[in-house]
Design brief:
Blueprint (H helix, E strand, L loop, with lengths): L3 E5 L4 H12 L3 E6 L11 E3 L5 E6 L7 H9 L2 E4 L3 H14 L5 E4 L5 H10 L4 E7 L11 E8 L2 H12 L3 E4 L2 H29 L3 H7 L2 H14 L3 H10 L3 H21 L2 H15 L3 H12 L3
Parallel strand pairs: 1-2, 1-5, 2-4, 5-6, 6-7, 8-9
Antiparallel strand pairs: 3-4, 7-8
Helix pairs in contact: 3-4, 6-8, 6-10
Organism: Streptomyces pluripotens
Keywords: Oxidoreductase
Protein name: Prephenate/arogenate dehydrogenase domain-containing protein
């Protein structure tokens, strides 16, 4: 059972998500951040939206003072909801303060570098990388959380069971497969949506004109484009730049667009139909599910 947790980077959206759910699960939570929201003084009690409260501590996980080191040393669980350079820089110092039965969790969107750092600097520490494959505002219910278990242990299993109790589906993968999967479902998808937007700009077609005349697929892409364009650039930059598998995903997307152009400009309707048949085959048994999901989505747009 997780009784005491420290969420590093708890001022951010991902950190707040974990802090709230851990509080609701009965854990005492300390949120550590260089600057707490509203410049809250150290030790002040701040609500998290669940009726429970976390304690804020202003601190730098890469340069721990004795108070933060003591907090880490008393925790059952430490969640690192921080950028990759910060998480990797902090691994050694954190692991020196951890109890032998404590669990270290990262929420990075790329896993290979962190997993390698943990194996090199803290091979005996229970550690798991979690990646909620959704915007934190959507919540865990009915959504996938990728889990890269670096070192198994009792608390590792306890945490994954807890995440499932929050309504999430835990998808266990190794670090390399995680990054390849993330490149396919995040970097590739974002690149396709951003490419659509950049193409509209290059064609000098105003979004308002598209909206006025567009069928549901175009309106859906506009909605996705607006969501990404309104988001935090650092998040989407990290998806594209930080993932070592993302370049291959973008290359595959560019190559697929070129193949489509070749089929349409130099092929036949039959070759186009063959391409669609290949896609149906790739979707396999999920074809009907995704087709029906699309129909339901289009009812809303």
């Amino acid at each position: 059972m997780i009784k005491r947790a420290v969420v590093v980077g708890g001022a951010g959206a991902v950190g707040q998500l974990f802090a709230e759910r851990l509080l609701a699960s009965g854990a005492a939570v300390t949120i550590v951040d260089p600057v707490a929201p509203g410049k809250t003084p150290d030790g002040a009690v701040v609500g998290t939206g669940t009726g429970e409260h976390a304690t804020w501590m202003r601190g730098d996980i890469t340069a721990m003072d004795f108070r933060l080191a003591a907090e880490i040393g008393h925790a059952d669980l430490i969640v690192l909801a921080v950028p990759e350079p910060v998480a990797i820089a902090a691994v050694h110092e954190i692991c020196e303060e951890l109890r032998p039965d404590a669990l270290l969790v990262d929420t990075l969107s790329v896993k290979q570098s962190m997993a390698a750092a943990l194996r090199a600097r803290a091979p005996g520490v229970q550690a798991v990388g979690l990646n909620p494959m959704f915007a934190p505002s959507l919540g865990f219910e009915g959504r996938p959380v990728a889990a890269v278990v670096v070192t198994e242990g009792q608390r590792t299993g306890d945490l994954l069971t807890l995440v499932e109790s929050w309504g999430a589906t835990v998808v266990r993968v190794d670090a390399q497969r995680h990054d390849r999967l993330a490149a396919s479902v995040q970097a590739l998808v974002h690149a396709a949506v951003l490419g659509f937007g950049l193409a509209l700009a290059e064609l000098d077609v105003p979004a308002a004109d598209v909206r006025a005349a567009a069928p549901p697929p175009a309106n859906t892409l506009l909605a996705l484009l607006a969501r990404i364009a309104s988001g935090t650039p650092e998040v989407y930059w990290d998806v594209q730049h930080g993932n070592p598998e993302a370049a291959a995903a973008r290359s595959a997307l560019a190559g697929s667009v070129r193949r489509l152009a070749e089929i349409v400009e130099h092929g036949t309707e039959a070759s186009f139909a063959e391409a669609l048949a290949t896609l149906r085959e790739h979707l396999g048994e999920d074809l009907a599910h995704h087709r029906d999901t699309c129909a339901a989505l289009f009812e809303q747009v």
